[in-house]
Amino acid sequence: MSTTEKSAASGIGPVEGAGETAYSVDNPAPYIEAPRQRTKKTPKSTRGNFEMAAWLFMRLSGIVLVVLVIGHLLIQLVLDGGVSKIGFAFVAGRWASPWWQTWDLAMLWLAMLHGANGLRTVINDYAERPNTRLWLKGLLYTATVFTILLGTLVIFTFDPNIR
Amino acid sequence: MPAGTLYRGREGMWSWVAHRVTGVLIFFFLFVHVLDTALVRVSPEAYDNVVATYKTPIVALLEYGLVAAILFHALNGLRVIAVDFWSKGPRYQKQMLWTVMGIWVVLMIGALYPILGHAVREVFGS
Ligand code: HEM
Questions:
Q1: How many domains in chain A?
Q2: What is the domain range of residue A74?
Q3: What SS3 state is found at A4?
Q4: Residue A28 pLDDT level (bands cut at 50, 70, 90)
Q5: Does the model's ipTM exceed the 0.85 cut?
Q6: Do A115 and A140 meet the contact criterion of CB atoms below 8 Å apart?
Q7: Whole-prediction pTM
Q8: Residue A73 scores a pLDDT above 80
């Protein structure tokens, strides 16, 4: 790799490819790349940005959930007589409107995914044995998929004239 | 454990613990809540029967606790977001926590009558 040769006359030998590469008369030492610099030779990262996306999702879903959940609590527990009014007829009245169907659907999906991701973090923090982690997460993901699907199905197939 | 080595964080640590505990609690509740609501697909009677138990005084008390957990998690969650995204968030994290607690106390007092009113009337007669 040596490109410089001692020449008696100048003290600095001729520099091959000066100007095109990292070497030059003014900078005869080879350019050393920063250790973490990404180049074409760097192997592709095998990790994506999943954890960063999850971190961001917790915050974005949190902001939306504040509106959805507090609105839900107000309607169900505070306004119009509180819990006392809740019953099949009340549910039928609300789900007759696409607005409240959409509200409840969004709340279901966001809260379940937000909560499941939060629980994933908690499992990662406390369960140390690989097998324990595997089983706990398997259980978590199963319960999450089941709950989201069941809830979605109930909202979409609700029948006010079931009897 | 050698004496004096137990990490005792200050407000920041305890708010983190409370955020975690309330988050897990709300998740478990949500799971059950979707199951009970699914009863509307079984029959109006099945649903109304379960909801009837929600109107008892003891469940009203549990409900008040659930609302307490959700309101804390929601308000403190907004604080966490502010700490992460607002340039001055970390500097004011403690003030924001006391603001959260202040709002939480006010909302919990406001929720007393709507949530527990009917239970009090039932227990002590109206
Ligand atoms: C009401 C609005 C809500 C807001 C503003 C909110 C906000 C947040 C934020 C910002 C985090 C991330 C904390 C961190 O990374 O340190 C978080 C964590 C979490 N949230 Fe929520 N959340 C809300 C509702 C919910 C609901 C409905 C559930 C349950 C279904 C839930 C369960 C959790 C769990 C389990 C964690 C993980 C706690 C941890 O890692 O310590 N949250 N929340």
A1: 1
A2: 50-157
A3: strand
A4: low
A5: yes
A6: no
A7: 0.83
A8: yes
**Nearest atom in ligand 1 to A118's CA:** 37
Give me the pLDDT at residue A162, please: 80
CATH code, A111? 1.20.1300.10
For position A1, what pLDDT does the model report? 45
Chain A stretch 47-76, residues whose beta carbon is closer than 8 A to a beta carbon of chain B? 59, 62-63, 65-66, 69-70, 73
Residues B107 and A66: beta-carbon distance below 8 Å? no
Q: Could you tell me if residue A11 is inside a domain?
A: no
pLDDT of residue A8: 47
Of B40, B115, B118, the CB nearest to A88: B40
Q: Is pLDDT of A133 > 50?
A: yes
CB contact under 8 A, A147 and B43: no
Dihedral Cα B121, A85, A75, B98, nearest 10 deg: 20
CATH number assigned to the domain covering B11-124: 1.20.1300
Q: Is A111 in the pocket of ligand 1 (CB under 6 A)?
A: yes
Helix B44-54 vs helix A88-95: crossing angle, to nearest 10:
110
Where along chain B do its domains lie? 11-124
Does residue A20 lie in a domain region? no
